[in-house]
Amino acid sequence: MYKSIIRPILFGFDPEKVHYFSFSVIRLINKIPGVSALIRSLFEIKDSRLEREVFGLKFKNPVGLAAGFDKDAKLFQELSNFGFGFIEIGTLTPKPQEGNPKKRLFRLLEDSAIINRMGFNNGGVLEAVQRLKKNQGVLIGGNIGKNKITPNERAVEDYTFCFEALFDHVDYFVVNVSSPNTPGLRELQEKEPLIHLLQTLQDLNHKKTNPKPILLKIAPDLTNDQLLDIIEIVTTTQIAGVIATNTTIAREGLKSVNKIEIGGLSGKPLTQRSTEVIRFLSENSNRSFPIIGVGGIHSPEDAIEKLKAGASLVQLYTGFIYEGPALIKAINKKILETA
């Protein structure tokens, strides 16, 4: 029903407007008595064989929603009804920011892909915290970044501000230095500044009574030498793991006219590369840290590939938009079949 009726209607309108419209509809229907339970009965699979314990947290299933969909933590409760094992909110920054000028979100229908140059548009971390205080049992990841106006030499201050603000309200953290849509941000992926940033957060973390897992989200455009550096950085700073991968700036093999747009590409064109990065990290680190696999998961088989390559958990974003919420259940069923 989603792909045959709902998606063609939604895809007839501007992608960003559809995103906010969909949010409003999902929020509205979940306010109707009994609808949340009905949605869960349609999409959720409860089975102990799906449970995973990763970096000290217990996930009810290994399929999560990637950051970027619910940036401001406005819909995590309702989205969890579709059967996600966890929801990652953000990317959040200390101060509210509008993001890049519109139009900034583009569908590539022929490629089953999306290009975005949103630019960390969000209402600020403190606003999100107020909503997270109402969380009723959803396992939440907090994806954090820096404001566009903050120079890289002061980026650590932005990340520590978000870390402190979110600490009591999320289950794990994700340090985002890999978005291509904030000028200069990817420079923080270089070895020296990245070690400084992660070690600063870890030092803060270890002062807490109950430290939280900190993960690093990396770009798919890193070379093998840079990926080896990432392994060394994870080992040095003893962070909990890596999310592989963010969107790509590569454009090889695309058919859509929108391929000329600047921004990060997600969806099917990223499937193979993100899996290659997962496999490289897993094999070259001797599986010494957990990896969350994300990028181009449009089918249960895509998810299984990433798990076989070394991912402990997977996340959806573009696949969720193109394939609909039934994809979550299909992946979990496939995991049970291959267990």
List keywords for this structure.
39% helix; three-stranded antiparallel β-sheet; eight-stranded parallel β-barrel; 13 strands; TIM Barrel; alpha/beta
Folded structure, characterized:
Belongs to the dihydroorotate dehydrogenase family. Type 2 subfamily. The active site is at 179 (nucleophile). One of its GO terms (molecular function) is dihydroorotate dehydrogenase (quinone) activity. This protein is α/β, with parallel strands linked by helices. It has a single domain (2-338), classed as TIM Barrel. The protein is 39% helix and 16% strand. The chain is built from 12 helices and 13 strands. It has helices spanning 2-10, 15-30, 35-43, 76-80, 125-132, 155-166, 191-206, 224-237, 271-284, 300-309, 318-323, 326-338, and strands at 52-54, 57-59, 63-65, 86-92, 105-108, 113-116, 140-144, 172-176, 214-218, 241-244, 264-267, 291-294, 313-316. The strands form 3 sheets. Strands 3-4-7-8-9-10-12-13 form an 8-stranded parallel β-barrel, surrounded by 5 helices. Helix 6 (155-166) links the parallel strand 7 (140-144) and strand 8 (172-176). Helix 7 (191-206) packs parallel to helix 8 and helix 8 (224-237) packs across helix 9. It is globular.
Topology readout:
Elements: H1 2-10, H2 15-30, H3 35-43, E1 52-54, E2 57-59, E3 63-65, H4 76-80, E4 86-92, E5 105-108, E6 113-116, H5 125-132, E7 140-144, H6 155-166, E8 172-176, H7 191-206, E9 214-218, H8 224-237, E10 241-244, E11 264-267, H9 271-284, E12 291-294, H10 300-309, E13 313-316, H11 318-323, H12 326-338
Parallel strand pairs: 3-4, 3-13, 4-7, 7-8, 8-9, 9-10, 10-12, 12-13
Antiparallel strand pairs: 1-2, 5-6, 6-11
